[in-house]
Amino acid sequence: MERKELTELEDLRWKLRGDALDMVFNGKTGHLGGDFSVLDAMLVLYFRHLNMSPEQRDDKNRDRFLLSKGHAVEAFYAVLAAAGFIDVKEVIGTYAKNGSPYIGHPNRGIPGIEMNTGSLGHGLPIACGMALAAKMDGLSYRTYCFMGDGELAEGSVWEGAMSGSNFELDNLCGLIDRNRLQISGDTEAVMKLDSQAERWKAFGWHVIEVDGHDLEALDDAFSEAEATKGAPTMIIANTVKGYGSPLMENKAGWHHQVPNAEQYEQIKAELKARAEEVRHG
Amino acid sequence: MANLANRAVIADVLMKRAASDRDIVVLCSDSRGSAALDPFYETYPEQAVEVGIAEQDLVGMAAGLARCGKKAVAVSPASFLATRSFEQARVDCAYSDTNVTLVGISGGVSYGELGMTHQSAQDIAALAAVPNMRVYLPSDQHQTRKLMNALLDDEKCAYVRVGRSVVPDVYADDDCPFELDHANVLREGSDVALIATGELVHACLEAAKALEAEGVSTTVVDMYCVKPLDVEAVLRAARGAKVVLTAEEAAPFGGLGSMVAQVVGETCPRPVKTLALPDAPVKTGTKAQIFERYGLDAAGIAKSAGELLAKA
Fold first, then answer.
1. What is the rounded average pLDDT of the residues B42-52?
2. Mean pLDDT of all residues in chain B?
3. pLDDT at site B1
4. Structural domain of residue B225, as residue ranges?
């Protein structure tokens, strides 16, 4: 990635967190902790790898993206807006309000969203079907599926894991947002999830572990996945829940807490400080 | 035409249609033999997917394939397809509006000897409750053929439930009127209206003959389309009769009987009796033995109709 582009993405990642914050604050609902942990990976995917733009919405050969951890929809809306699919002001103004199309989980009524997701564990089998369709049709598009780590307790994830390798879906790339916290607390206290790399390798996947907030490392991981043949790739992105806001970082309560006015101002200030770090090097 | 089980008719339709439509994709969960789909898998391996014993994956993958332009047909025993993968049916098929046809084979009490794990008594109630999900129980091979062709021609999701064995014809090769989502009135009478779905339509026809012999004038409606229910057909049948009975190879709550009672009660109140399997594990037996035990054979249906009419 060139320096200029990296700087632009570095800048954008704080702006988009601010957009997600505005959605949650105005809508009085949402999942900021997971928004902030997964956002950097979504940003790199959309701006560096995903062959999908508003003009390609009906292109059969467009890349497919599924946000299986659908509760991070505010991050999804922010990225879709930055990519030109939707208007961020409209989202912030109407998110979760009475009758709004901007629901608290992804839905196909919104330009750029492929499937209605949010019930955890559904994404990977659907993604397998999409990737298999590409193979059947001899199309080159790739399919991406982002999951949460708490989601990995769902058995259907592992059914999809079997299919991904069984059908040799090297056009499929999964990503685990490994922020180590779920609604009830530490993932290891809820249901042990460590050794994910070994588990996916045992299921026949190519596995890449990466710092989920290192934009260049994420960029390299998606490139490595594209170059991997014969097996699907799972990127385990080690992340921080609430990343970018010391108020929220690594606190399970911020899974779905809505900030009050004072907290909102504090988080805004924290994000602004991070953005200024980028601008001033 | 040779007598084929409804599942075999579906397999035959898929074979014929796949020859000219490469977007048809069939998925099975270690169920291709039961589905009579071995020939399809041998003839069209590029359009056939085996996921192993994994119904959630089956339906999720079908939805993913459908979203990318395929006509996905997921075939698995009704008991597992309808309830193990219920959420995938609800969300990935119905809510996401994907072109997936779910075919539940060996439905109802086809596996009467195998216990409740392998019987699908709740599938109608479960799937009919889902917005945008259609629920069909064809009554014989001719209707099954027309239904399956119609579903391959549209782009919405549906659940089709069929049994395991050959069933008696309700229609003939050259006389099977079919309009999607419109019930067929098989005979008209003025005392009793029998509204049935699936394999109990034929039993109701036999019951109607017995009732006629006793001077009871009987309507029989083939409500293969449980969802969307043909409300007009229900009301026409109910208005023309003194009592209404429904018959279905399913649990007694939430299925055809509940839906008909709701419609009749709201619009033209009449006594309505639901003939169905019990709200309990079904006692072991062949399908015929089970139907007899629970009053779902022709004699039982006629007896219930006579009793209800006598009280009216």
1. 98
2. 97
3. 58
4. 184-311
Residue A122: list chain B partners with CB under 8 A: 60, 87-88, 91-92
pLDDT tens digits for A19-72? 999 999 999 999 999 999 999 999 999 999 999 999 999 999 999 999 999 999
Q: Cβ of A67 under 8 Å from any chain B Cβ?
A: no
Please state the ipTM of this predicted complex. 0.97
The answer to whether the CB of B235 falls within 8 A of the CB of B267 is yes
Last residue of a domain, one of B101, B126, B161: B161
Domains identified in chain A and CATH numbers: 3-279 (3.40.50.970)
Judge whether B175 lies within some domain. no
Q: Residue A129: its chain B contacts at CB < 8 A?
A: 60-68, 72
CATH of the domain at B110: 3.40.50.970
Output the average pLDDT for chain A. Answer: 97
What percent of chain B is predicted at pLDDT more than 70? Answer: 100
Rounded mean pLDDT of A78-104? Answer: 98
Chain A residues in contact with B60 by the CB 8 A cut-off are: 122, 124-126, 128-129, 156, 159-160
Q: What is the CATH number of the domain that holds B236?
A: 3.40.50.920
